[in-house]
């Protein structure tokens, strides 16, 4: 309609005066390229009054069902030739009419591109690039992807649309969408008209994203249609999952209008269904009764809490409860398994990072770390792999039980003791070895018998006392008494008169650290030999346990590395990131650019080159308030076509 063309003129020329643009459009009889020429002439003036009063052209009515204007069909610019080649991966999904429309659009795109270059040389700086005089800040460089203007808490829209736009097949389907005139005339429902109008706006938005000379586009027209469909007010941010569900529903319904021409009610021919939707089989036991059902899915929801990585999330979603028949009839009354029976070319996972806090009465974001790979093999979740996977799950269960037992044994060694403070047993034995090897206060040699560091006459009673003690150590009070007597007996008269009587220090005071008061060589050797042998035995036990744990853990990690389970790879295409809390925050997207072989970060109007390392930091979670909220994988076959290697 007229408003759509006005929006396009605003985007292409940068002029915001609606009345001026409307007059130029009428003067050009609805020809968008001619209107652009009028507006970008070196001395462009307001169109004459008689031209402004000309009859409305056909373009002022609904543009649904008509071809896009020439400049808009730059949706297939020279850089976009790959779109046609990549679309071959999905050729069974499209009709001959769609293929013809694609070829026609490509031809008209070249003409439009040449016209655009010709007209660009005539533009004035401030007219073309808006009020900002720094045109280089707004000018698009080559075929670098364009950003999307945030018109007020609409970063969620940009993140999702950019992720979809960078799917060549989805882009081709949107740009090639058209309906026969009779279908347009027969569409009377409010919902149907809204879906068609949204498709039309999305079509124009995609065309501008490919053909614009500016660094970003304004999605206002498409957003206006979407706002009415959401429950929340305009000021509030939208949930990515909610919006994506709504978007795919609208697109599915819009394409169904075209499918109904040949196969009324048959959604299997709907290209949106073929591109984004799959099926899974649920088998289980409930209250002793078995059940089985097939369901369709678009975005597959996954819980984050309690899992370390994406495969663990999927495994948790695929298996619930216990399916063993022996236990199902007793303690466990519910259990089920899910198996994918059909995977879509574009596989989207919703990561549930929000939960409701009952005590606070409000939602909270889950910030725990969750890793995901650049390539995920889906074989282990397919129904055709059921028998092999069930065997591996049983083996996995046995290995995990073994792991628990091994870790418990290791913990008994590493946290030894009966009190609240516990220590590694090898360390405790080492400490005792160090204690007995410390310099004693009095050393006794079993070979010398009565020889000590004291004079012979004074040493004999002490040795006898030592040997008479049950533990071979003289009590401290006797030692002090004898030391005092020895001091008095050996002091000179002058010392006795001039020095006050003071008992000597205790062994604890005189030694540098804790040490045995008295220990014989025989005792020392015996204790040292035993402790060293026990410590070596225990260290070997600990080493054996650690090696067993490592081997078991490796078996668990490699359980599904079977080549038979690596036949259905999916490559990571886009990661939608949310930073903030449950009730507020910001969205952006990381999207893999196949031609450039690199990750790009799409953050509203900004599109910058990124890396897997940056993506990990922002998306895995656990470090800050940013984490992945939605993962979009594409079939490896599609990925190869996009890259031009298929």
TrEMBL record:
- PROSITE patterns linked: USP_1, USP_2, USP_3
Provide a Gene Ontology MF annotation, just one.
proteasome binding
* Compartment(s) where it occurs, according to its Swiss-Prot or TrEMBL record: Nucleus
Return the Basic and acidic residues bias intervals: 100-119
Q: Where in this chain does the entry annotate a coiled-coil region?
A: 389-416
Q: State the Gene Ontology BP annotations.
A: proteasome-mediated ubiquitin-dependent protein catabolic process; protein deubiquitination; regulation of proteasomal protein catabolic process
Reaction(s) catalysed (UniProt annotation): Thiol-dependent hydrolysis of ester, thioester, amide, peptide and isopeptide bonds formed by the C-terminal Gly of ubiquitin (a 76-residue protein attached to proteins as an intracellular targeting signal)
PANTHER family under this entry? Answer: UBIQUITIN CARBOXYL-TERMINAL HYDROLASE, UBIQUITIN CARBOXYL-TERMINAL HYDROLASE 2-RELATED
Q: What is this protein called?
A: Ubiquitin carboxyl-terminal hydrolase
Give the originating organism: Phoenicopterus ruber ruber
